[in-house]
Write a structure and sequence with these properties.
The complex is a heterodimer of chains A (about 575) and B (about 475). Chain A contains 20 helices and 23 strands. In chain A, the strands form five sheets. In chain A, strands 1, 2, 3, 4, 5, 6, 17 and 18 form an eight-stranded mixed beta sheet that branches. Chain A has three domains: about 70-225 and about 355-420, FAD/NAD(P)-binding domain (3-Layer(bba) Sandwich); about 235-350, FAD/NAD(P)-binding domain (3-Layer(bba) Sandwich); about 430-545, 2-Layer Sandwich (Enolase-like, domain 1). In chain A, helix 5 runs parallel beside helix 9. Chain A is an alpha/beta fold and about 575 residues long. Chain B has about 475 residues and is α+β, with helices and mostly antiparallel strands. Chain B is about 30% helix and about 20% strand. Chain B has helices at about 10-15, 125-135, 140-145, 145-150, 165-175, 180-190, 205-210, 220-240, 255-265, 280-290, 300-310, 355-370, 380, 445-460; strands at about 45-50, 60-65, 70, 75-80, 85-90, 95-100, 110, 115-120, 270-280, 335, 340, 345, 350, 385-390, 410-420, 430-440. Chain B has a six-stranded mixed beta sheet. A four-stranded antiparallel beta sheet of chain B has the order 1-8-6-3. Classes of the chains: A alpha/beta (about 575), B alpha+beta (about 475). Chains A and B meet through strand 10, strand 14 and strand 21 of A and helix 6 of B. Chain B: InterPro entries: 2-oxoA_DH_lipoyl-BS (IPR003016), 2-oxoacid_DH_actylTfrase (IPR001078), Biotin_lipoyl (IPR000089), CAT-like_dom_sf (IPR023213), E2/Pdx1 (IPR045257), E3-bd_dom_sf (IPR036625), PSBD (IPR004167), Single_hybrid_motif (IPR011053). Chain B: It comes from Digitaria exilis. Chain B: Its EC number is 2.3.1.-. Chain B: One of its GO terms (molecular function) is dihydrolipoyllysine-residue acetyltransferase activity.
Chain lengths: ~575, ~475
């Protein structure tokens, strides 16, 4: 009864004239109700703990001034030592300084790790080139916008330099940001020699030892190369070599059709190569929502100079030598029978990444890796061989294998720092967005439709799906880029967003509205009233939110397992106040 | 495909492309009695692969919503077809029982090929099954037959030959073909087994497939060049006959100079004539002084005036391209001759009649800057529909211009000079006067046309307020 009162308030706010609605929305009281109701509904199913808002700027400044000057408390050299200065370690270090922790970071290679030096960053430089090449080459597209382009070409070395320069620039930015905050950057390979003790130095000569109250392992990953594949770095190579763009082969086979393979296919085909995908699973792009993968195949694969073999393993790959091309032996993924031998000019191995955890000294503290990954719990605490938490030792990023994305590593790092600063924190991995920077881009957050259906079946709720096309978006049409869809998977009973998947222009930038909503527990019934500038691509998401049909509120209110009583009471009190004031206003 | 209430409105767009299930044996269009027991004629209908888009040549069956033995009603979605663009539900136009699925889910069929058989009633199911067997046995002959047999499948796909299927197989065993070569082979129905590879390691390249498909990508420019060469070859002898002058320096033409030379020679083929007109410019000069601080140049004012006059006399803005017709241009683009280092170029003020003088001035400034830097794009110097040439600034009082190819007229503007003028009452006064001379193609522009155009032009110049509107 009381909850229905709340419902009728917002319903009247919606249905009454738009003037009244905006009035109500603007009123601080109205906003407070929104927030409260959201929490009330969210707390039953949402499991993330939200970091309390705080003013950390002053503290960070103070900490920066003191870090390095004063020894870590409790007789430790440092409050926090991070092994690995990739994006994960960097994110953790910055947040640690903000929290006033004396922090050191150990790096055996170059600051920035895979992402900055051999991953996301240089690949974005290449993809920026490929995007422009694609546009300029698409005569039909240009003509339809009234543009004429006489001829296009590219200078391979200059393109490669662009990628390399970008990496060095970001690397120095990263280094400077840590130095200026007073994070000690220690050079060498870090090894854990015992509880809260790390030794570092040149490989094989770890000669310096430090103690730390807490240790974070953030050593990342390296490209995974299945056995039978011989890497020569020239004709058979991994993303590490490919990003240097030392050659643009006429025909390149890409083994693996995940993010890395897909992005490189975009680069290579834009630069004139023909591409053959080799995928072990039955479908290309196995990690994506099936519907998105299907459309991606229509947009990113079929019209391009690409063919593919699915359901096959590359059992043996021999680099080009003695006047022979690269030979790829394909066997059936199930029967292991030899199917075909491909002859190509080059092969890129994009079969995923393997954790880089050797030499960490995990055996010293009774930790056994699983396929190389460091076992952790949901708080990133390292688990030992007996399944117990190793105190003061955490592992973030690719090395724990939970979600192998740069920004996930950083988020995990921040979560760990929160915990060691005395605030419990569990990162909601379902709120971490992912993106594939093809042209157009693909992005996603949360569950895929099959995953959501499985969960719904298991937990006994319903899900709904709404979709919208970029062809319905003014800005996309102005750009002549109508290819693409966005898809929202949600619970019609609670309005909870379960997953959003986008394929289309600037999808990677668009996903954050959805990922933030998931992270903050914003419900569709609230977010659908948020305003989007017109005309922008963001209206694609607006369209989704507005199209989502929710079950009538009365029905939900009558469900027994809804918000706890005290909250409900508070809620109804405020809504009663609000509704009376709205009535006053309307009068 | 369980998402029946999916709000994706694709199914709506399939409506025009809904499959036709035409009656195979008799082609009778009338509605049959609801109860088919008494029906004498056997009613077995084929369900065809529909054309879901204009570019679709074959479709893949994503899933069958109805399976063999299911009774379906008119309007039911029976199958989901994947075209080159999207997945679409395909509905049946007839009631019946799905007797036999000829193309199972996951397989493809060319547009127009039968993909299932629909029986009118239970009794006809065995008949349909027999027919299905017949169809699957007689596949090769059948493949060619259905297309002509069906009256109007709307799309004009080439007769479906199942060449696509054997192609990949042969590719695997014989010559190795690149991905794009395979794509092209499928598209152009080329049997890769019969293509000889010329690429590295004997690989079949996209070019090989194109050659095999009878496409000649290269010869096009080659074929065009003799055509271009012909007139120039005719022109060259005139220049070439002159004996070399001893002691003289010979400087070959730059590309631009060569282009000018070619255009000038070509202009000889056009029967041109000239009409001159004196125009009093006092008011124009006054206006010019006023707008000069705003960056407006005399050239722009003249171009604007010409454009406004052309708007009233479209024939002067037309051109004669084939000697048989008028080509009326939809835009008024004023090309203005500009002398640049080592030549001449004609940046074009597009839509000069529509833009105001300030915008035109801005455009003009940009164009001149680009012209000096030799960065003009082709459409910025070749899209003119009328040319303006002004030598007034040198003190030239009159000249005539040569008509550039592809345009109907060119205007030559001389200097504006103080002149003693007698008005109709016999009073003398001193007024600034300039002489304008227009050269036009007499195949399309006649003397009176040109005179009328010039009169309009003069009126605009002599009362120039309209220029600022």
């Amino acid at each position: 009864m009381q909850s229905t009162a709340a419902v009728s308030v917002s319903a009247s706010a919606i249905t009454s004239g738009s003037g009244a609605r905006s009035e109500a929305a603007r009123r601080p009281g109205g906003l407070r109700v929104c927030g409260l109701r959201r929490e009330a509904l969210a707390c039953s199913s949402l499991r993330i703990s939200q970091a309390p808002a705080r003013l950390a700027v002053a503290r960070a400044a103070a900490a920066a001034a003191t870090n390095g000057a004063v020894a870590g408390s409790g007789g430790f050299d440092y409050d926090l030592v991070i092994i690995g200065a990739g994006v994960g370690g960097h994110g953790a270090a910055l947040h640690a300084v903000e929290e006033g922790l004396k922090t050191a970071i150990i790096e055996g290679d170059v600051v920035g790790g895979t992402c900055v030096n051999r991953g996301c960053v240089p690949s974005k430089a290449l993809l920026a080139v490929s995007g422009r090449m694609r546009e300029l080459h698409d005569e039909h597209h240009m003509k339809s916008m009234g543009l004429q382009v006489s001829s296009t070409g590219y200078d391979r070395q200059a393109v490669a330099d662009h990628a390399n320069n970008l990496a060095s620039k970001i690397r120095s930015n990263l280094t400077n940001s840590m130095k200026s905050l007073g994070v000690d950057i220690l050079t060498g390979v870090g090894t854990i020699v015992g509880k809260q003790r790390v030794r570092y130095g040149k490989v094989g000569f770890p000669d310096k030892e430090i103690t730390a109250r807490n240790i974070i392992i953030a050593t990342g990953s390296t490209p995974f190369v299945p056995k039978g594949i011989e890497i020569d770095g020239k004709t058979v190579f991994t993303s590490d070599h490919a990003l240097k763009l030392e050659s643009v082969p006429d025909w390149i086979a890409i083994v693996g059709s995940g993010y890395i393979g897909l992005e490189f296919s975009d680069v290579y085909t834009a630069l004139g190569s023909e591409v053959t995908f080799v995928e072990a699973l039955d479908q290309l792009m196995p990690g994506f929502d099936p519907e998105i993968a299907k459309l991606a195949q229509r947009v990113l694969i079929n019209p391009r100079k690409i063919d593919y073999h699915t359901g096959v393993f590359a059992s043996k790959i021999t680099p080009a030598k003695d006047g022979k091309p690269v030979l790829i032996e394909l066997i059936d993924a199930k029967t292991k029978e030899h199917k075909e031998t491909l002859e190509v000019d080059a092969a890129l191995i994009a079969t995923g990444r393997a954790p880089f955890t050797k030499g960490l000294g995990l055996e010293n503290i009774n930790v056994v890796t699983q396929r190389g990954f460091v076992p952790v719990d949901e708080r990133m605490r390292v688990m030992d061989a007996d399944g117990n938490v190793v105190p003061n030792l955490f592992c973030i990023g690719d090395a724990n294998g939970k979600l192998m994305l740069a920004h996930a590593a950083s988020a995990q790092g921040i979560s760990v720092v929160e915990q060691i600063s005395g605030r419990d924190h569990i990162l909601n991995h379902l709120s971490i967005p992912a993106a594939c920077f093809t042209h157009p881009e693909i992005s996603m957050v949360g569950l895929t439709e099959p995953q959501a259906r499985e969960k719904a079946d298991k937990e006994g709720f319903e899900i709904s799906v709404v979709k919208t096309s970029f062809k319905a978006n003014t800005k996309a049409l102005a750009e002549n880029e109508g290819d693409g869809i966005a898809k929202l998977i949600y619970r019609p009973d609670t309005g909870e967003i379960l997953g959003v998947h986008i394929l289309g222009l600037h999808a990677a930038d668009l996903i954050h509205e959805a990922s933030n909503a998931i992270a903050l527990g914003t419900r569709l019934q609230d977010i659908k009233f948020a305003v989007h500038a017109h005309p922008t691509l963001s209206e694609v998401l607006d369209e989704l939110f507005k199209a989502a049909k929710l079950q009538p509120r009365e029905e939900r209110g009558s469900k027994p397992s809804q918000p706890p009583q005290p909250l409900l009471k508070a809620l109804s009190f405020i809504t009663a106040l609000l509704s009376s004031s709205i009535r006053d206003r309307q009068r | 495909m369980a998402t029946a209430p999916a709000p994706f409105s694709l199914s709506a767009s399939t409506v025009p492309a809904r499959l036709r299930a035409a009656a195979v044996p008799a082609g009778a269009r009338g509605r049959q009695p609801r109860r088919g027991r008494m029906v004498v004629r056997a009613k077995i209908r084929e369900i065809f692969m529909p054309a879901l888009s204009s570019t679709m040549t074959e479709g893949k069956i994503v899933s069958w919503a109805a399976s063999e033995g299911d009774r379906v009603n008119k309007g039911d979605a029976v199958v989901v077809v994947e075209s080159d663009k999207a997945d679409m539900d395909v509905e049946t136009f007839h009631d019946g029982i799905v007797a036999a699925v000829l193309v199972p889910a996951g397989e493809s069929a060319p547009v127009g090929a039968p993909i299932a058989l629909l029986a009118e009633s239970e009794e006809e199911v065995p008949l349909a099954l027999a027919k299905a067997k017949e169809l699957s046995n007689g596949q090769p002959q059948q493949a060619a037959a259905p297309a002509p047999a069906e009256d109007a499948l709307a799309t004009p796909p080439p007769p479906p030959t199942p060449a696509a299927a054997p192609a990949p197989v042969s590719a695997g065993t014989k010559g190795i073909a690149s991905p794009q070569a395979k794509n092209l082979a499928k598209q152009h129905r080329v049997d890769l087994a019969k293509v000889t590879g010329t690429g590295p390691y004997g690989r079949i390249t996209p070019e090989d497939v194109e050659a095999a498909a009878g496409m000649q990508p290269k010869p096009k420019p080659a074929a065009a060049s003799p055509a271009v060469a012909a007139p120039s070859a005719a022109a060259v002898p005139q220049a070439a006959v002159l004996p070399p002058v001893p002691g003289a320096t010979v400087v070959p033409f730059t590309t631009m100079q060569a282009a000018v030379s070619k255009n000038m020679v070509e202009s000889l083929a056009v029967p041109a004539f000239r009409v001159g007109y004196p125009i009093v410019t006092d008011k124009l000069d006054e206006l010019y002084e006023k707008v000069k601080p705003k960056g407006v140049t005399m050239t722009v004012l003249l171009a604007k005036a010409a454009a406004m006059a052309l708007a009233q006399h479209p024939v002067v803005n037309a051109s004669c391209r084939d000697g048989k017709s008028f080509t009326y241009n939809s835009n008024i683009n004023i090309a203005v001759a500009v002398a640049i280092d080592g030549g001449l170029i004609t940046p074009v003020l597009q839509d000069a009649d529509k833009l105001d003088i300030y915008l035109l001035s801005q455009n003009w400034k940009d164009l001149v800057k680009k012209a000096r830097a030799k960065q003009l794009q082709p459409n910025e110097y070749s899209s003119g529909t009328f040319t303006l040439s002004n030598l007034g600034m040198f003190g030239v009082d009159r000249f005539d211009a040569i008509l550039p190819p592809g345009q109907g007229a060119i205007m030559a503007v001389g200097a504006s000079k103080p002149t003693v003028v007698a008005d109709k009452d016999g009073f003398f006064s001193v007024k600034s006067k300039m002489l304008v001379n227009v050269t036009a193609d007499h195949r399309i522009v006649y003397g009176a046309d040109l005179a009328a155009f010039l009169q309009t032009f003069a009126k605009i110049i002599e009362d120039p307020e309209s220029l600022t509107l």
